[in-house]
Specification:
heterodimer, A: mainly alpha, Formate dehydrogenase/DMSO reductase fold, 10 helices, 73% helix, B: Alpha-Beta Plaits, 3-stranded mixed beta sheet
């Protein structure tokens, strides 16, 4: 058995940091967006901003304590070099700092579009979106940077992690909506609610579609090559040690089923101008499936990279 | 370092001073007019070395004395190895063979571990090409361990820092051979400055067919082998003959 040097702490960090960054990126881009969906955008932005920093900080905490000597982590900030981990840690610190400030602007109960914090909120969103994308994408670059690990050594992994992060961010915002906004009796709020749910569901459908494309390309090119990469990717193909979690939990439950459900849901409004009415069962099940898929994706990738190796000496 | 080594080192230092002094004296005596030339020669920096190792596996008897010497030299914690010997057994009876493959850090020309280190704790020394770990900067993130195609690194459980072979930098800087070279009963290891064309290792490299491990990774190792068997257990998939690799490490499988 190969040594697994990066275990559950790292896997959880990759998932949680992606989730937090994804939620803030969605929040920021929805806030900055012009046109359509009226005030429903603000509610989405608010929940994304409030939830985002929490998993990001929790993941970072796990990662720092995985080192065994937490204060040594400060050495990361004595230098900046071209190591993906160095650039990633600077991004992470920037992201946590500014996403906390961004979350604070949403904290007052009176927070709403056009209040006195609006300018600052927009400025912070302009910082949070790129730094959040940085955090989400660097985790894939971090793994992809090493020829010694043929399973990870693919530029497309970073894209997969980015899409998966944004998709988990959308999922967690949808879940928050179910818990905190659905019960309102005010018809205006209810309309708003369905409007924002449509925005999120449609966005998520596009992202999940992109994930399917990337997974397809990843597998296709691994199969088209010969040598190390092909042997490594056999771990997740039928007959491999990680085939079950990959195909059932990641591809099936995590991407394909949510994608199909969301397409069915948004189809009437998207194609024939019908009315979108978000259903509670869908709103709960789809995000949970996406979150399970997002975690399992990190798990499968991190483990598969470490149990596979170069064939020839 | 024991008393004998210290004595040796200081004797060597004395000899160097003696020789250096003689050289300066003769230069002053011989060419008093060419003062500009001598001052230019004085300012010239010492030439950078590039240490490397050549392992003649035909002379290796698989006795592990290199591994033991290394363990003793660095007090490497139980279960971990900076230097180790792999056995490769292959064939079907009666056509069988066993080959020994001593392993250590390759001190690559393009070390991936250095590229990925986020704090600059691991770096390749300009003056002698040795890849070292600065424990004052290492955070124990294990990124370098992931990046090494040779599995030469490990997390030292006592210190919590990344650890690996450093070509016995403390011995080499005093003019001694690394512990594994010193202890090799078959004389299978030649250590020296590859950038010096007159060194023993350079002459042997120039006159023997040599290979390095995993050349396809682009790392350009500085540990060379004569007659190394590159067979791996992966070849068992073909089903023609059996290959069994015994790593003699905690990691039972070669990475």
């Amino acid at each position: 058995m190969h040594e697994v040097n990066w275990g559950i702490h790292v896997i959880l960090y990759l998932f949680l940091a992606g989730l937090g960054a994804g939620a803030v990126v969605v929040s920021g881009s929805v806030l900055l967006r012009k046109g359509g969906f009226g005030s429903s955008r603000f509610a989405v932005a608010r929940w994304g901003a409030l939830i985002g920093p929490i998993p990001a900080m929790l993941g970072t905490f796990l990662l720092v304590f995985e080192l065994g000597q937490p204060f040594r982590a400060l050495n990361l900030f004595k230098v900046i070099n071209l190591s993906p981990m160095s650039i990633g840690s600077w991004f992470l610190v920037l992201f946590i700092f500014f996403s906390l400030l961004y979350a604070l602007t949403f904290l007052p109960r009176s927070a709403g579009p056009g209040d006195r914090l609006a300018r600052m909120r927009r400025t912070l969103a302009w910082i949070c979106v790129p730094s959040g994308i940085g955090v989400a994408i660097y985790t894939g670059i971090l793994l992809g940077a090493m020829p010694a690990r043929p399973f990870w050594n693919s530029p497309i992994l970073a894209g997969l992690f980015l899409l998966s992060a944004v998709s988990s961010g959308v999922a967690v915002i949808l879940l928050m909506g179910v818990f905190f906004r659905r019960k309102s009796t005010d018809p205006a709020v209810r309309d708003d609610y369905h409007n924002s749910a449509y925005l999120l569901t449609a966005t998520d459908a596009i992202i999940l579609g992109g994930e399917l494309v990337i997974i397809f390309l990843f597998l296709l090119f691994a199969q088209l090559t010969i040598g190390d990469v092909r042997y490594a990717v056999a771990e997740i193909l039928p007959g491999g040690q990680l085939a079950m979690p990959f195909w059932v939990l990641v591809v099936g439950f995590g991407v394909f089923i949510p994608f199909v459900i969301e397409i069915i849901e948004i189809r009437p409004r998207l194609l024939s101008g019908g009315v979108f009415r978000s259903r509670m069962a869908v709103e709960v099940v789809v995000p949970i499936l996406i979150l399970i898929g997002g975690f399992t994706l990190r798990y499968v990738v991190v483990i598969a990279g470490q149990i596979s190796a170069s064939a020839a000496l | 370092m024991n008393a004998k080594q210290r004595q040796l080192a200081s004797r060597r230092g004395f000899m160097q001073k003696l020789v250096g002094g003689a050289a300066v004296t003769s230069a002053v005596v011989a060419v008093p007019a060419l003062t500009t030339a001598t001052s230019a020669a004085k300012e010239k920096k010492p030439r950078n070395k590039h240490y490397g190792m050549l392992i003649d596996t035909r002379k290796c008897i698989g006795c592990h004395s290199c591994s033991v010497a290394c363990k003793a030299e660095f007090d490497v914690p139980l279960g971990f190895t900076r230097s180790w010997v792999e056995y490769t057994e292959k064939g079907n009876y009666p056509n069988v063979s066993r080959h020994f493959l001593p392993r250590l850090c390759n001190h690559c020309r393009h070390p991936q571990c250095v590229d990925v280190c986020p704090t600059g704790a691991t770096y390749k020394r300009k003056q002698d090409g040795i890849v070292v770990v600065d424990t004052g900067l290492c955070i124990g993130c294990k990124y370098c361990i992931q990046a090494c195609p040779y599995d030469a690194r490990f997390l030292n459980p006592v210190t919590g820092f990344a650890d690996k072979c450093d070509f016995c930098i403390h011995r080499v800087s005093k003019g001694l051979d690394p512990a594994c070279v010193n202890s090799c009963v078959g004389g299978a290891r030649i250590f020296g400055d590859i950038s010096d064309p007159d060194s023993e290792i350079s002459r042997q490299l120039a006159t023997n067919p040599v290979t390095v491990l995993r050349p396809g990774k682009g790392t350009e190792p500085n540990v060379y082998y004569i007659a190394a068997d590159h067979s791996s257990e992966h070849e068992n998939k073909r089903g023609w003959y059996d290959v069994r690799v015994t790593t003699h490490r905690r990691e039972k499988k070669r990475r």
